[in-house]
Amino acid sequence: MVHVRKAYCETAEGEQVHYRHAAGDRGPVVFFHQTASSSQMYLKTFERIGGSWDCYAFDTPGFGGSFDPAADTKPPMSQYVDWMYQAVRSAGIDRCHLVGHHTGACIATEMAARYPDLAKSVTLAGPVPLTEDERIEFSRHFGTPFTPTVSGSYLLDNWDYLRALGAHEDVMLFHREMADMLRAWWGRIQSYSAVWGQDFTRFYRELACPILIMAAPQDVLRPYLDRAREIRPDARVLDIAGANFEPDLDPDRFAHGIAAFFSTVEKSS
Questions:
Q1: For 26-69, how does the pLDDT look when each residue is reduced to its tens digit (9 = 90+)?
Q2: 188-192: long-range pairs with CB below 8 Å, 24+
Q3: Residue 105 sits in a domain of what CATH number?
Q4: How many structural domains does the chain have?
């Protein structure tokens, strides 16, 4: 049985960042979640490779158990990357495999580009090589807040949003993601603003470590997977299912696929 422990580390300003850790002999591996999930989205991964791989999953500021950025601000992606890099180093990690899903892929990519000595490899579930016009179009669909209302109508708005993304394929995933969405109702808007303002492609081109990319056929970012392959033909591609929740809905292929990639990277280094 894999034991997952919860803990906090700090940013340079002393803000608390929450993370989950499953100890292992190899790695370490650092995971960043999508919007508006939390580190819980990697628990099935921990169950499968924790114990073998030293796994850490961090809650981005505004999500899970981490601190909230000031409500009247919309921090740029560079700030999120700085916070998460400081958290990773505060947890005692100086070199690792980075794994990111959607928004987490944006964080992992920029972090690896800006701090190349940190990254043994980068794994991206849903890379985001969007043009400026595409980022604007995405912002129209993924930038509207589900503001709490006395009537409770916002609860159904959140539920329908998650159903459209595929969470209904597992009712307990649906329930968990709903709880995470409600907690992060404003953090979601802040982080998406950072995503649409980031030049992901520039950082993706700069990556100097091995790359693994993936996106399920129903993933909203699947149309851009081929573009990510064209930009970086050296990137390996993992075939996977699971809509926008690959680690939960295709857990074996996700966990064992990334572990095989890590092993290959470590053998060649």
A1: 999 999 999 999 999 999 999 999 999 999 999 999 999 999 99
A2: 188/35, 188/36, 188/62, 188/145, 189/74, 189/143, 189/145, 190/62, 190/69, 190/73, 190/74, 190/75, 191/35, 191/36, 191/60, 191/62, 191/63, 191/80, 191/103, 192/35, 192/103, 192/139, 192/142, 192/143
A3: 3.40.50.1820
A4: 1
